[in-house]
Amino acid sequence: MSETTAPAASGPDREAEELFTESVGDRAGEWDRAGEIPRDVLRRLGARGLLCAQAPVVHGGLGYTSRRNGELTAHVGSLCSSLRSVMTSQGMAAWTLRRLGDAGQQAALVPRLTGGELAAVAFTEAEAGSDLSALATRLTRSGDEIVVDGAKVWTTNAAYADLLVVFGRTEDGVGAVVVPASAPGIRIERITDAHGCRAAGHADIRLDGVRVPADALLRGVDRSSALLVTTALSYGRMSVAWGCVGILRGCLTAAVRHAVGRKQFGTRLADHQLVARHLAELLIAEQNAARACEHASDLWDRGSPDLVTAVVLAKHVAATGAAAGAARAMQVLASAGAHDGHVVARAHRDAKLMEIIEGSSEICELILAQHAVATA
C-alpha cells in the first residue's frame, strides 16, 4: 500500500472510495508540486456525481446524507487535500444552488454540476472574509440583466471552474448570481504560490461589467445576510472538517509505519516513549475530530436547530487537530517526511490552511464563545 493509499471501505461506499483511490494513485505529490490536477480527472469524477455527492438523485446526484458524504470526504482528504478542496467547492456550490435557487434554477443548474461541469463559490474579498457586510462586489439590475462588478480573492476551484457562484451587494441587501467563468469581463488569475492545497485551483477573480440574465440571480437576494453566510459557509465548514479527519488519518498511517519500521539505538521508534506519545496524540486528535464530525453530520441529517454550532465546533476541532497532528507526524518522520510532495509534508502545509479557510480558528472560537454566553 502506498503512502497515499487509505484502507478500503467495507460498506456500500467502497466503489466510490476505490474510484477516488484509483484516480489519485501515487500522483498526489506530483499534483502538489505541479500545482494542478488534470482536468480530465476532475471531470470524470464530477460526471459520476462524486464531487457533490449530497446533491439529490432527481438532479443527477447520489443523494448522500451528510454523514455518508463526510466519510467519503475524509477518504479523499487522506489521499489528496487539493482534490478534497475541489470536492468541497463543488459541493458548496451545489448546496448553495439548492438552498438559494428556486425550483427552476435548481433543476437547470445542479445537474450541470453532477454532470461533469465544475463550479467555484466566489465569496472572499480583500476586505471581506467571514464578514459578509463588508462585501464590495456589486450586483446591479439593468433592464433584464444583472451587471456584476468586483474582485474576489483566494477562490478555490476557480482556475478549473465552468461556473462561478458570486456573492455581492444588491439594492436590497446581499445576493448571489451564477456567472459563466468564460463570460466577457471576467479575469481569473491562478495563485501559483499557495502555501497549502497547491493544486486546488485557487485563483483571484476580477469582474468588470459582467452581464448575465436577470434570472441568474438566485432568489436568496431576499434573505438576510446572516442566513446567506450560514448557507454558504456551513457546507464548506462541514466538508473541511471531514477533510481534516482524512489528513489526520493519513498522518497517523504514515507516522505509525515509519515508527514501526525504523530503529534507533537498537529499538523501534514506536517503542521510544517520547515517540509513542506523538502516535498517541495523533490517534486522539483523529478520534476527537471524527466524533465531532459524526455528531455534526448526524445533526445535519436530522435538521437539528443545533446544527450550526455543531458544524463550527467540528471544523475547529478537526482543523486545529489536523494542524497539530501534522506537526507531530513531521516530527516522527523527520527528514523522511520532509520531501516536497510527501504525504506528511503536504499535510503540514495543507492543515495550516484549514485553520484559516471557511472561518478562521479565531472566528470559530468567537462563534462558540457567543453560543456559550447565549446558553448560559
TrEMBL record:
Keywords, sorted A to Z: FAD, Flavoprotein, Oxidoreductase
Record Gene3D superfamilies: Acyl-CoA dehydrogenase/oxidase, N-terminal domain, Butyryl-CoA Dehydrogenase, subunit A, domain 2, Butyryl-CoA Dehydrogenase, subunit A, domain 3
Cofactor section: FAD
Domain Acyl-CoA dehydrogenase/oxidase C-terminal: 229-371
Pfam families in the record: Acyl-CoA_dh_1, Acyl-CoA_dh_M, Acyl-CoA_dh_N
Family matches, as InterPro entries: Acyl-CoA_Oxase/DH_mid-dom, Acyl-CoA_Oxase/DH_mid-dom_sf, AcylCo_DH-like_C, AcylCo_DH/oxidase_C, AcylCoA_DH/ox_N, AcylCoA_DH/ox_N_sf, AcylCoA_DH/oxidase_NM_dom_sf
Highest taxon of the lineage: Bacteria
A single GO molecular function term of this UniProt record: flavin adenine dinucleotide binding
Positions of region (Disordered): 1-27
Domain Acyl-CoA oxidase/dehydrogenase middle: 120-210
Protein's UniProt keywords contain Ribonucleoprotein: no
UniProt domain Acyl-CoA dehydrogenase/oxidase N-terminal: residue ranges: 15-117
Sequence similarity: Belongs to the acyl-CoA dehydrogenase family.
PANTHER family noted in UniProt: ACYL-COA DEHYDROGENASE (PTHR43884), ISOVALERYL-COA DEHYDROGENASE, MITOCHONDRIAL-RELATED (PTHR43884:SF12)
Protein name (record): Acyl-CoA dehydrogenase
The species this protein was found in: Streptomyces thermotolerans
Upper lineage: Bacteria, Bacillati, Actinomycetota, Actinomycetes, Kitasatosporales
